[in-house]
């Protein structure tokens, strides 16, 4: 690439041709050029942000873009060789992308510092994602094991199932049932096909076991269907893999912090040292705590599996959360749909009953009349006023 510069000297014209040196291939140069045009930042701002771990001027997304597009070792070697082979006043001969990558490399340990800054967010996002998944599994398992509503509903399903199979000696006196039948209860219909077994269970529960049915105090007796759906997406092997990876990456970050601090000049040491060492210390504690919660959640899940007597699907060694929780999700989804509808019906019935009670009380109310005492003071005054008026 050539840049033409026109200059004038006394009595003559001079044309200066400056050749811009391109060391990057076309595609790479274009990529860096696009990055430069999108930044709208001075290199001093970037350096300040990296050295002080401050994202107020240069946001994390920009630092990530700079880190991902930093010069490779080969590119940097070519650029440095060019600098060493040119005079100091000819540095401008580099094309913009090459010059930008060179200036970026001059930030003290840009790569190590940027990696640590980026990992802070990566770690927080990762540990938060693990925590959400662990919490949803723990919450759902706790609800299934400890919620009285779950026991009541399961008891009704067992009781009605035994009643329906009353004439069958092998199936009519069951002590329990497999959870795999739960999603199928909606397909068990009455003779006229107007209601399903799920509808009947919900209706019976609300009308006989929920004293607050039809009011704002009525509480859905099972864990929320959406919680089951989210819990069904969890795979313990993936969570343990994520925990191990975070630990490995945290160890790398810790080493980077130590190396950067060890190589830094005194003027560039703070506040990077204090901020990053505090982050690493806190991250280690958070990681250890989440690892413990994950193991506890897996144990609670296994306790729930054992409690309900669940067995692995054919061809699988263990019962997977996806299998168990999807059974519950389908059943709870059907149950809640009916529960909402039946609750509205009961609410209207109770409102109507209350209105009828008020109407009955009003109709039965009688006006009481008292016999007037002709000799009372009030009656004598009334008669006197009447006589005066008539005269």
From TrEMBL:
Write out the coiled-coil annotation as residue ranges. 344-387
- Tell me where it resides: Nucleus
Q: What is its main location?
A: nucleus
The Gene Ontology CC terms held by the record are: cytoplasm; nucleus
Q: Where is the FH2 domain?
A: 1-361
Which terms are listed as keywords in the entry? Coiled coil, Nucleus
Q: Which Pfam families match?
A: FH2
PANTHER family from the UniProt entry: FORMIN HOMOLOGY 2 DOMAIN CONTAINING, ISOFORM I (PTHR45920), FORMIN-G (PTHR45920:SF7)
Family, as annotated: Belongs to the formin homology family. Cappuccino subfamily.
Its recorded name reads FH2 domain-containing protein
Lineage per the UniProt record: Eukaryota, Metazoa, Chordata, Craniata, Vertebrata
């Amino acid at each position: 690439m050539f840049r033409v510069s026109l200059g004038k000297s006394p009595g003559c014209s001079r044309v200066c041709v400056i050749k811009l040196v391109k060391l990057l291939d076309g595609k790479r140069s274009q990529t860096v050029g696009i990055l430069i045009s999108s930044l709208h930042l001075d290199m001093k701002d970037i350096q300040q942000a990296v050295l002080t771990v401050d994202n107020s001027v240069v946001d994390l997304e920009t630092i990530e873009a700079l880190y991902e597009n930093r010069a490779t070792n080969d590119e940097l070697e070519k650029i440095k060789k060019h600098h060493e082979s040119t005079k100091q006043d000819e540095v401008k001969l580099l094309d913009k992308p090459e010059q930008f990558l060179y200036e970026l490399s001059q930030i003290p340990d840009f790569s190590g510092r940027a990696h640590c800054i980026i990992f802070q967010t990566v770690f927080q996002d990762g540990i938060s994602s693990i925590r959400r998944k662990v919490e949803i599994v723990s919450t759902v398992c706790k609800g299934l094991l400890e919620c009285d509503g779950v026991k009541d509903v399961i008891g009704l399903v067992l009781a009605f199932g035994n009643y329906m199979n009353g004439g069958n000696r092998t199936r009519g006196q069951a002590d329990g049932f497999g959870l795999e039948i739960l999603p199928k209860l909606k397909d068990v219909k009455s003779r006229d096909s107007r209601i399903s077994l799920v509808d009947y269970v919900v209706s019976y529960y609300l009308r006989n076991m929920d004293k607050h049915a039809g009011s704002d105090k009525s509480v859905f007796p099972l864990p929320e269907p959406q919680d089951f759906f989210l819990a069904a997406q969890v795979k313990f092997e993936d969570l343990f893999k994520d925990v191990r990876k975070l630990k490995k990456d945290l160890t790398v970050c810790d080493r980077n912090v130590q190396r950067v601090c060890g190589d830094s000049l005194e003027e560039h040491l703070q506040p990077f040292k204090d901020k990053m060492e505090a982050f690493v210390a806190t991250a280690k504690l958070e990681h250890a705590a989440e690892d413990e919660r994950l193991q506890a959640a897996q144990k609670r899940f296994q306790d729930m599996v054992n409690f309900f007597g669940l067995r692995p699907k054919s061809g699988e060694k263990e019962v997977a959360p996806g299998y168990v929780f999807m059974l519950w999700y389908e059943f709870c989804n059907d149950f809640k749909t009916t529960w909402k509808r039946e609750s509205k019906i009961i609410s209207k019935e109770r409102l109507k009953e209350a209105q009828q009670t008020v109407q009955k009380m009003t109709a039965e109310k009688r006006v009481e009349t008292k016999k007037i005492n002709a000799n009372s003071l009030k009656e004598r005054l009334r008669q006197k006023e009447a006589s005066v008026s008539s005269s």
